[in-house]
Amino acid sequence: MVNYLSVNGAKITVATMDEKDYISLTDMLKAKHGDFFISDWLRNRNTIEFLGIWEQIHNPNFNYGEFAIIKSQAGLNSYKISVKEWVAKTNAIGLKATAGRYGGTYAYKDIAFEFGMWISPEFKIYLIKEFERLKAEEQRQLGWDIKRNLAKINYRIHTDAIKENLIPPELTPQQVNQIYASKADVLNVALFGMTAKQWRDSNPELKGNIRDYANVSQLVCLSNMENLNAVFIADGMPQSERLKKLNIIAISQMKLLTDDHRIIDLDEKSQD
Fold first, then answer.
1. What's the 3-state SS for 91-112?
2. What element of type H or E holds 45?
3. What is the band of 220 on the pLDDT scale with cuts at 50, 70, 90?
4. If you count DSSP H runs as helices and E runs as strands, how many of each does the chain have, helices first?
5. How confident is the model at residue 63 (pLDDT cuts 50, 70, 90)?
6. Contact 103, 2 (CB under 8 A)
7. Residue 268, exposed/middle/buried by CB under 10 A (0-12, 13-18, 19+)?
8. Rounded distance, CA 217 to CA 153, Å?
9. What letter would DSSP give residue 23?
10. How far is CA 173 from CA 71, 108, 177, 241, 243, in A?
């Protein structure tokens, strides 16, 4: 993924590499007056010391032996090293030299901020401020995308629910008056219209139980019914009466859950 920063009139590329943000030093260099090169920055002893400390903290594969040799030569008039040489010799990860459409020299944000100081203190401050603005915008966009995706998922769940006729059937007097062996089957009959055994007999090829194949809307409804059933039992309500009430509640809640897609649909259209 590629984004851009605008700092003192310079358009600076920010690229995601290995799930981390790298900022283009090549683009940043355009903001520095005069003929300067990244290799000029790299030959500075303070730069090498900073890069070495950064790699020691972030890079377990950093080559300390090669780093020691480079450090001993840094600052000498005859010393010069390119980004590619630095990476190849030390296994550094903070700097990257890339080719192609977005080619150039990139640095992890901490190092890019340090490079910004080499251009000017003012440039560094504005670079950090612009980068923070970009990250804040990305977080807002991420929240927006999550909200939209959840709305789409819920919409799909709800429309699928209607297609599958998931509104529970109204129970017959025979079903209401039948004595069920467990509280679980009372809820199963109220919501699914059948006991666990009846479902298994009807679906011998499927593994698990009826609840394993329930969708999100049914599971939400089932959770609500479990709480209500506990209250009804505590009140001493007979099973037949509990079952009838739970069935009415299941029908009502599933209608609400499956109809709710219209609200989500309207919300999506208003945000487009």
1. CCCCEEEECCCCCEEEEEHHHH
2. helix 45-58
3. confident
4. 13, 5
5. very high
6. no
7. middle
8. 12
9. E
10. 89, 71, 6, 11, 11
Classify each residue of 129-168 as buried b or exposed e, where b means 16 or more C-beta atoms within 10 Å of its C-beta.
Answer: ebbeebeeeeeeeeeeeeeeeebeebbebbeebeeeebbb
DSSP state of 243: H
Q: What is the pLDDT of residues 74-91, one digit of tens each?
A: 878 778 888 999 999 999
d(CA 259, CA 159): 8
Q: What is the DSSP letter of 208?
A: S
Over the range 177-208, which residues count as b (16 or more CB within 10 Å of their CB) and which as e?
Answer: eeebeeebbbbbbbbbbbbbeebeeeeeeeee
How far apart are the C-alpha atoms of 176 and 154, rounded to whole Å? 33
Helix (H) or strand (E) holding 242: helix 239-259
Structure tokens at 268: 């999506």
Kindly report the number of other CB atoms within 10 A of residue 125's CB atom: 14
| CA atoms of 23 and 20, how far apart (whole Å) | 10
Nearest to residue 94, comparing CAs of 50, 32, 138?
A: 50
Pick from 158, 136, 222, 215: which is nearest to 184 by CA? 222
C-alpha radius of gyration, the chain, whole number = 32
Q: How far apart are the two ends of the chain, measured CA to CA in Å?
A: 23
